[in-house]
């Protein structure tokens, strides 16, 4: 069951979500940052999905229809931003690196202690100043719209360990490798190989949060070589799979 604490209207919120709990699709008139202090949080929009472990924070601009899905027991902190501060953040949904300073400011802002409006404003500015210093994180999985691509992506999602090439999958969905390659670039801005790597990273984040071992996660996500999985995961997430798994299972302040 969801437990929710609002510290003030459209200012700070805490939502404690159970494993696999999902919110209905909704939007807000103000842009907001969403931080999973514990667990893994997926953000889904019509443009694709973003995924954030506890060392990342998600920015959602005003008016974007979206929904959330929790992987593992998730402590979701929400900080709404006034328009003047929102202009300092991207004009589109994004995953940003969560620094130690920004994390502590977020936990303080969303904690049970009541703070004055000037103090809350200063904490918001600390968060923004720290998270915009680093580039956006590559944890976005674009959603294709072409029927052939959607059929292909479902095949990949249903069997993550399959080694099928784009040509193999093209024969199953009735399109040539050249056509599918062109469509992938046009609709997602990625090659098929890049898109499948992103999908595998998303799935690995979830499986590791669920307690699956690093080796079993690598195999389940399609890596025959666990060392290659560790290298690619570390490059995308910023820490090794083992360290990430320990961090999402740790108890954090509420």
From TrEMBL:
The keyword Nucleotide-binding does not apply. It comes from Actinopolymorpha pittospori. The keyword Repressor applies. Keywords: DNA-binding, Repressor, Transcription, Transcription regulation. Residues 150-247 form the HTH araC/xylS-type domain. SMART domains: HTH_ARAC (SM00342). This is HTH-type transcriptional regulator RipA. GO terms for molecular function: DNA-binding transcription factor activity; sequence-specific DNA binding. Transmembrane segments: none annotated.
